[in-house]
Amino acid sequence: MEKFVAYRCKVCGQLMSVKHDRCIKCKATADQFEEFELPKTGSLVTYTKLYALPEGIEMPPLALGVVDFGGVRVLGQLVTDDPKVGMKLKPVWGKLRMLRGKEIFGFKFEPAS
Amino acid sequence: MDILAEASMRAIKDAKAEKKDFDAVYVANMFAGETMKQTAVASSLADRISLFPAAAERLENGPAAGGSALKNAYLAVASGAYDLVLVAGGEKMTTADTDVVTDLVATMTHPTAEYIHGVTLPAMGGMLTRLYMERYGLTERHLAMVAVKNHANAAKNPYAHIQRTCTIEGAMNSGMIADPLRLYYVCPISDGSAAVVLCSMEKAKEFTSKPVRIAGFGHATDIQAIQEREDPAVLKSVQLASKQAFKRAGMTPKDIDVAELHDAFEILEIVESEDIGFFEKGKAHLAVEKGATSLTGEIPINTSGGLKARGHAVGATGMAQVVELVWQLRGECGERQVKDAKRALACNFGGFGNNTVIHIFERGW
Hints:
The complex is a heterodimer.
Chain A: E1 5-9, E2 15-16, E3 33-37, E4 42-50, E5 62-69, E6 72-77, E7 88-99, E8 102-111
Antiparallel strand pairs in A: 1-2, 1-3, 4-5, 4-7, 5-6, 7-8
Chain B: H1 2-14, E1 24-28, H2 32-35, H3 41-48, E2 55-59, H4 65-78, E3 84-91, H5 98-106, H6 121-136, H7 140-154, H8 168-172, E4 176-179, E5 181-182, E6 192-199, H9 201-204, E7 212-221, H10 236-249, E8 258-260, H11 266-275, H12 284-289, H13 306-309, H14 314-330, E9 343-350, E10 355-363
Parallel strand pairs in B: 1-2, 1-3, 8-9
Antiparallel strand pairs in B: 3-6, 4-5, 7-10, 9-10
């Protein structure tokens, strides 16, 4: 089971959804970060429905959005035809797309209820 | 190479520098290796227009390559290392299919936090637009107003890619690309080139009675993934780069008479005009309603037609902005001339606003 995690800088408390080698706020090195599990649900901050599709995604539209999980924002695909700002979403692990002949997996987000 | 050489030769001719020896040439280009199967384009340009033995290098900085090339050339001249420099930007994009080009551009997004999810630059534009709609009351009609203005300007620009006007209704009925962004709120895929000749102000008087001075530049980066930025609705690198540029130039936003902004998506013209300081945050769309950014408004923006209609030949874009502003300051823009333009600003950015180069120009006479 893949874990849905983010990073906390133990020096300044900054939260990061993306892996950096130094803290985006205080520049402390990554050996001073701790990994933590994000909350089970988040809320949709913004989204788009993409009709001009990138390689390896078959059916338009592709819904993409930024989801806030307790102060950590994560970007990903939305598994819903009717996204709305503020809606509650939960992460699910699955295939994202084909890219240069390979299957790419990651977390995407589906309605929580 | 044909279009890079053409713009370069025109710039050299315009500067009456045909018989001069250039110390260096800086070439802005994003992906000739992929679309033209040609790398090291700067060496090739030096050969094509016989600039050798001038130092030649290509600058790749995403769609901010043009601004970056000019900035590096400026630093080289200002340091005293070089006396006479050519700066050119060029990109040939229509040789590749639309999905290939869109993917090439998308490769500048964050590899794991954005790109693999299927994020493209129009997707970023769509998400920023929706944030603005939710937070500041921006409507689709405002985007259409920006598009109509930029198309009207491009119709007066013989160098523009799309020299056609459009209507609000036409724009609002165009195909959806990245909801809420329709075709008319997104830049086209263009071929293009632009070039300038750079030297010290003192030396410039040998060439022309109307030299344009670089009054200041600013250049800043920001966190790459939009979701990690403190506020995804703020283009912090635009704010920081313009602050630097205004400080170096000893000016404020109120001093600027005309500006070229990086409107790869019409939302970006609105957001940049706020983050540069022309308008209060969240209020630029209201200024657009009043015509403040039109040719006769208080701060005309994208007189060339902008990326939207002049076109967005990625590596050339920053230099195309510069050339338009030089023509504006020299009063050579014909029907799209801003009356008595004395000071101008260019905002060129790479990524989705995470690498911004700003230049401020003024009349040097």
